[in-house]
Amino acid sequence: MRPLLRGGVRVQALRGGVCVQALRGGVRLQADLFVVAVILTVALPAAAQSRNAVPRTPDKKPDLTGVWQAGNTLRGSWQDTNGGIGLGGSGRNPTGPTVQSSTERPAGAEAAPYQPWAAQKVLEAFNRRGIDDPTALCLPPGVPRVVMLGLYPQQIIQTPTHIVVLYEYGNSHRLIRLNDKHPDDLIPSYNGDSVGRWEGDTLVVDVTGFNDRTWIAGTGTFHTEALHVVERYTRVDKDQINWEATVEDPNVLTKPWVLKTTMMLREGTRIEENVCENNVDVDRYEQLLKGGIDFTRH
Fold this sequence. Notes:
2 domains; four-stranded antiparallel β-sheet; disordered N terminus
């Protein structure tokens, strides 16, 4: 096929592409535009996808290891994503989102399906402004509440047989045994007994063996020792885990209660000591009530 000469550039049509030849200073530069276009089209998105891919362990399971913040959807460092003026924010970004407090339920959560008598008890705690919150007495927040709290980071450490979760809030921790069973001699505890298994790329954690001294999610959301929680952790990319919990307690709930949140990777953040010691605020509130000062909701 006869080449065309245009402006000192030789253009020749070839099967499967276009070949361009240019003569500059005696040096011939040749590039197949079709091939270059294909390389750019494939290579650039693939590189971006690789940087954001889900990290995996040697046994090909998603690696959940890292320091995470729940109740947030922003990507980046702790400082960059917590600049709002609300609770837990630095105030550097007045338009930034606020962080969910320990007395709030996850944004968009369905209403708690309490039995009528139990719903009245939850309302009473709400009207008392949560002064009887177990964490105000320096007790552990418990599962699932501690997972959803965004004010403090949590760190996941994954091994082939166990997953350890360290919560800065209340210096709490969990040990999730993989492919194991709950023992028959469980002693009721704040975080319960956790056993996990992989369903595809989702970590499913079954938690039972609770005491009745924690709240589920938000002010007054009490439960009994019949509490049973099934969590699902799905790492969708490098920066995000989608978390879901199905909460059951036939003694107080009319049906399973589904809670959801996102957990965002916070690289460069470390877990620090957080100690609740001799909180006297609860006693002060009680004294106010006894003194005739009514601060409750009506």
